[in-house]
Write a structure and sequence with these properties.
The chain is α/β, with parallel strands linked by helices and about 280 residues long. It has one domain: Rossmann fold (3-Layer(aba) Sandwich), CATH 3.40.50.300. It is built from ten helices and nine strands. The strands form two sheets. It has a six-stranded mixed β-sheet, sandwiched between helices. α4 packs across α5. The longest helix is centred in the last third of the chain and has 16 residues. The radius of gyration is 20 Å and the shape is globular.
């Protein structure tokens, strides 16, 4: 049920990602991890990827940055094939994983942010400029000489994000970046990602639909197949699609549904409360 008539079409830029009938199977697996997956992402789009465990989300991430090679179909990222040009593709794609601890290797924050640039041989003066800019972008200016182990989970994930931004990738692939964070940490990271909207092409893999309320589109993977490509509003309004793919609507959307209100219309408790008060006032006149 791929819906190509969606908000994402307003992005008229070049193709950032192009998948055509993509397939991959792990050795000794009875079923393919991905089968016949086709979609496109245009430069500047913010695209969510959701689905039940085992649906193919993590496999897609690994194919995008060349950690796996597809068995079938074609995949281009920034016009390059990750299977044959993985090193080149990784200059254009930054992957943020769910465990921020795994990417922190240096004694001070600024050294961690500079790590990727050092591997690329970026000149020292240019490196300092890019590290400072990336740290400002994620709200960590002043943290340069902090030791990573003293930071909160959200701050550590923002350090990892700064390290990606310093390399200046065109595409950010977020593999459940908030799954190991508390509520405050999740909010910190999501606010920084929202600030990057339009500047970067973003693919955001998550189990939390509320994190994708502002996405241009949401791809639903289940059983290795792409079963939907919808705007957040249409996805939240499709009860059968949500149920069939074990997707849990955000709390506000569930409350709206229970009250007979359109679930996609409300993104915050305050918006829902305002609608309830307005409806109550109308009925009491």
């Amino acid at each position: 049920m791929n819906n190509r008539d969606h908000e994402g079409a307003r992005h008229g830029g070049s193709l950032a990602v192009s998948c055509e009938k993509l397939g991959f199977s792990y050795p000794d697996s009875a079923h393919p991890a991905l089968s016949g997956v086709s979609f496109e992402v245009r430069a500047g789009e913010y695209v969510g990827v959701v689905g039940p465990n085992g649906g193919g989300k993590s496999t897609l991430v690994r194919l995008l940055n060349g950690l796996l090679r597809p068995d079938q179909g074609h995949l281009l990222v920034s016009g390059r094939d990750p299977a044959t040009e993985p090193i080149e593709v990784r200059k254009y794609v930054g992957v943020l994983f769910q465990n921020p601890e795994s990417g922190l290797v240096a004694p001070f924050v600024e050294d961690d942010v500079a790590f990727g640039l050092e591997n690329l041989g970026v000149p020292r003066e240019k490196m300092r400029e890019r590290v400072a800019g990336a740290m400002r972008a994620v709200g960590l200016a002043g943290y340069e000489r902090r030791e990573p182990h003293t930071l909160s989970g959200g701050e550590k994930q923002r350090v990892a994000l700064a390290g990606l931004l310093a390399v200046e990738p065109e595409i950010l692939v977020l593999d459940e970046p908030t799954s190991m964070l508390d509520a405050a940490g999740r909010r910190e990271v999501l606010e920084r990602l929202e600030a990057l909207r339009g500047e970067k092409t973003i693919l955001h893999v998550t189990h939390h639909l509320e994190e994708l309320a502002n996405a241009d589109r949401i791809l639903v993977l289940n059983g290795g197949e792409l079963v939907a490509d919808e705007t957040p509003g249409r996805l939240l309004s499709d009860h059968d699609l949500l149920r069939e793919n074990r997707l849990v609507p955000p709390v506000v959307a569930r409350l709206a549904l229970g009250l007979g209100l359109p679930p996609a219309q409300f993104r915050t408790p305050e918006e829902l409360a305002g609608a309830i008060l307005a409806r109550t006032a109308t009925r009491t006149r």
